[in-house]
């Protein structure tokens, strides 16, 4: 449980694509849409965890797969970053796009190599180690991890929502555009990681 709490909190508050997307969607569409992004790992991590556990159990080479995923993720992050850079003041009002935020979060999570790397080298081994003690040990690790991961993400949404009155000014647009730059920077890192994992750099 303690390991899950530490890892979950670290993942939740560390800067990354999902962190930037949570802030961006909360500012643009409100805390409800931001919350959808915040809880998205509960859905998107299921196939990731199952895939990683399958790879670990069969000792299959995984660098090429992660490298390809990283390159696709970079393309999508560049798309999101470009969209944020082009935003104008009139476009900052909350709109009735109820599904877009969650869809974006799903794509970012599925194409983000970090969850795969985490579960391959940290989470997966912890789960397997828990199986040696009993299935309950693995269960409490997962509960601790996702409680703090999602909880810290929701906390980010609430903090951002409280600052909405200030960010509705022209400076709000600057924040969104800055997040756009951040997403593009993460995309460049994903390209580097993808090429490195594929043995091309």
Strand content: under 5%
What count of domains describes the coordinates? 1
Query: Into which percent range does the helicity of residues fall?
Result: over 70%
Number of strands: 0
Distance between the termini: 38 Å
What profile does the largest beta sheet have? Answer: none
Radius of gyration: 18 Å
Report mean pLDDT, rounded to a whole number. 79
- The 3D shape can be described as flat
Low-pLDDT segments: 91-98
Count of DSSP H/I helices: 10
Structural class: mainly alpha
Secondary-structure element order, as H and E? HHHHHHHHHH
Structural write-up:
This protein is mostly helical. It has one domain (2-197). The protein contains 10 helices and no strands. The radius of gyration is 18 Å and the shape is flat. Residues 91-98 have low confidence and may be disordered.
Features:
201 residues, mainly alpha
Question: Layout of SSEs?
Answer:
Elements: H1 2-13, H2 17-29, H3 31-39, H4 41-58, H5 63-85, H6 100-111, H7 113-133, H8 135-162, H9 164-167, H10 170-197
Helix pairs in contact: 1-8, 2-3, 2-6, 2-8, 2-10, 3-6, 3-8, 4-6, 4-7, 5-6, 5-10, 7-8
